[in-house]
Here is the input.
Amino acid sequence: MATSDEIFSKVQEALVEALAVDDDEVTPEATLVGDLGAESIDFLDIVFRLEKGFDISIPRGELFPEDILTSADYVVDGKINAEGLALLKERMPFADLSGFEENPEVQEFATQLKVQDMCNFVASKLDG
Amino acid sequence: MRWFWIDRFTEFESGKRATAVKTVSLSEDHLHDYLPPLAAMPHSLVIEGMAQTAGLLAGEHYGFNESVILAKVAKVEFQGFAVTGETLTYHAELTSIDEGGARAVVTSHVGERLHAEMEVIFAHADIDREGAGGGLFDERDFAITLRTLGMYDVGVTESGERIQIPRHLAVAEGSANAS
Here is the structure.
């Protein structure tokens, strides 16, 4: 059973390789998009590395619930409504969505994700 | 001019690995002005050839029912140039493949000499339109290309059986009837 340090260290390695950043830039509070410069295509690279590194399977939409973020039921004027937000929280218990909650612009969603959220996600997958 | 940067598959194991060759020839006139008098193959075209090897491997796995898009060259390193008269051997291994995309590591060799190594990510785009590549290119042309590249001459499944051309491409090339 991996410890949180082991998880962090492997997630850090995946991000260093995928985003071509230094070890010390990858802190738990660093945002993938803002601080580490991740672009949308990098997320596919990161997901593949995490799958291989932890021997887990991450189906499309599990990390980013695209179906909620693109649904007319939950997105009004480019913002997620209360119902959508509740569903997001349910689907993403690993993520700290407090920042997103204050300004739930769909465009900004990806920018909120932090390294710690990724670690929590991996831990929840490993726990099964 | 068509955008072919591999000549032929010499090995093809569906969903796993493929080897293709590319002969560098002075009759490719874009080599004349690149680094004269060295008639060298530009690295960008080697990258494209390696990507075609891996991309067709990724595409075949789902029967060419979706668009395989070269999304990211994660890493590439070259050891010198390949020059006219040499044959490049590209070897691709799929390290990950699912409905979202694929990741491959590809090498380029001149005989025993390592020429380049690359890690590449492909995205599988959702198709709204029917046909290979979501209707972005002609299916008959594509079927002919795959035949020319020898995919169905050397291609095998994991268990060693010959791979078959997908039905929608067979219909397009006229080797099967639309039902």
About this structure: The first helix of chain A runs from residue 4 to 19.
